[in-house]
Amino acid sequence: ERRSSSLQHRSALFACGQKQVNSHESWSLSPEEFEIWDRLYRIKEGDGIKEPVLPRVRFETLENLEETPKPREGAARELSLSEWSVWQNQPLPTSLVDHSDRCHLFISAMEMMELMRHQQGDCSYERELQPHLQMEDVNIPGNRRNLSRANPP
Amino acid sequence: MAAGGEERQMLTQRLKAAVHYTVGCLCQEVEEDKDVQFSKQSIAAISEITFRQCEIFAKDLEMFARHAKRTTVTTEDVKLLARRSNSLKSEELASSHIEQKEKKKKKSSVAKGERTPGEQEAAVTENEDSNMV
Q: Could you read off the pLDDT of A94-107 as tens digits, one per residue?
């Protein structure tokens, strides 16, 4: 119900556009808007809902500059980008915005991992590419790779 | 154009093989560093992601250069690739100035348009997931 009421509100806000805009020319909510937000959308102590937060970016191999303030323990629910990975080997429906190339990359990578999930040891990807490797393409100084991995027995 | 397509396919495979090999080397470094083991499948997945991410980087770099009315991609464009994360940005800046540890040098190769370390790609990709639609 919440959702439909929010949609109604949105259209209501747009419908009375001019009047609404004039009633508050600042960037913040007008008292009426604040009242609506407070009543319908604001997450409050008694709601039994945790505040949704997005995971922060952390680099394993770099210095992390962005110090992240930790929310109060148990007060927030971190939104997961991996919990539903089994759903992500296909494009999910879109509304107005098409999937991007980046998104298609992600989907095809998930698909590939799904296909390789049950492979043991030897890897089909490697088998397929092995004949195409030309060592002059991979001139890595200080390369300490043992070649047994590049040349499967 | 069948011949052209075939040739293109061969080039693609050759490049993929090179990326795969390089990702393998980088993963091996991480293995030694962190005392973990990568399965062949995980290395293959990181390679494929890296390869495809390069396509995205290439398109972005072209756009950034064109946006600045240039036809040549410069380090400025590369810095823009890292715009979403301060840690990544400062890494780019640092590595374009000072001689760094070997490990960091590998990363700066990104800035010079060489091949990209898979793990950094993965981090970027992960970072971008939230921007996906």
A: 999 999 999 999 99
